[in-house]
Structures are given as C-alpha cells and as structure tokens.
Specification:
mainly alpha, 59% helix, DUF1648, membrane, DUF1648 domain-containing protein, transmembrane, transmembrane helix
C-alpha cells in the first residue's frame, strides 16, 4: 500500500490547540503545587458516572494525573509525527495522501489536547472537593468527556469520507 513519509508542518490550529492544552495543563500542575499544603490528607480520587465520589485516597494520588497526562502527551505527540503508520482507506494515493495525513494528525492533536484539559479539570475539581468548595465533580462531567472525545473523531471521519 502507498505510504510515503511526508514532513507536513503543523497548521496554525494544531499549534493553537497545543498551546491551549499545554498552558491549561501546566496551570493545573501549578495549582496542585500551590494548594498542596492546604489539602487534607484524604482527597477524592475516583468518581462514578454521575460525578459522585466513589473513593477517597491519599493526596499523593493527585500527582498521578499529571504523570499520566505527560505520558499521554508524549506518546500522542510522537504518533502525530508518523501519520504514515496510521490505518487509511485503500483509496489513499499520491493525490490525496497529504489530505489524509493532515486530517488524521489534526484529529489526534485535538484528542491529545482535550485529554490534557480534561486532566486539568479533574485535578481542579478534586482539589475543590477536598477543600469543601463543592461535593462532586459534576453531573456534566461524563457528557462533556464523551462529547469532547467523539467530536474530533466524528469530524475526522466525516472529513476522511470527503477526501477523494
């Protein structure tokens, strides 16, 4: 199958998504550091589909989210650089290869940065709950997660179907 290795520069929208995702994520790490001394020893660490607390645990567990976020960011950033390794329809050819690569890379970029923002929001809400500012992560959380992950994927599929 035709799979050339192309160096396609990041688009403006990909760069903006990267900046927004990384800045919000770094702010959440900064917020964790600033609030660390104010946190009780036990904080909420697991939530059900309604956003209610399922389990309380050590505040050390709050550090896990940034590590997972950094790991995901690194892996997904590396995957963005190798679109020739993705799975594409059989109609991939010299004329449309750049469009396929760019579309799939944009989709991955949006999901990557949504995950960073998601981890930032989870950290923020865990701290707010631990400090007694709210009682749950919010009923809205699960629908936002589902919508936020599926919109880039559905958008990417639609664009892929339109590529000739």
């Amino acid at each position: 199958m035709y799979r050339p290795i192309l160096k396609i520069p990041k688009t403006r929208s990909e760069k903006v998504c990267d900046y927004i995702g990384v800045i919000i994520f770094l702010l959440s790490i900064f917020y964790i550091a600033v609030m660390w001394g104010k946190l009780p020893e036990e904080i909420p660490v697991d939530f059900n589909g309604k956003g209610e607390i399922d389990r309380w645990g050590s505040k050390i567990e709050l550090i896990i989210l940034p590590f997972i976020g950094v790991f995901l960011w690194i892996i997904m950033s590396l995957l963005e650089k190798v679109p020739h390794m993705y799975n594409f329809p059989a109609r991939l050819n010299e004329q449309n290869v750049e469009a396929f690569y760019l579309n799939s890379r944009k989709m991955l970029n949006e999901v990557k940065n949504f995950c960073l923002i998601l981890f930032a929001v989870i950290s923020f809400q865990m701290i707010r709950i631990a400090l007694g500012e709210t009682t749950s992560i919010g009923w809205w959380f699960l629908p936002i997660v589902v919508i936020g992950i599926f919109i880039p994927i559905i958008k990417g599929i639609i664009v892929t179907r339109k590529i000739k």
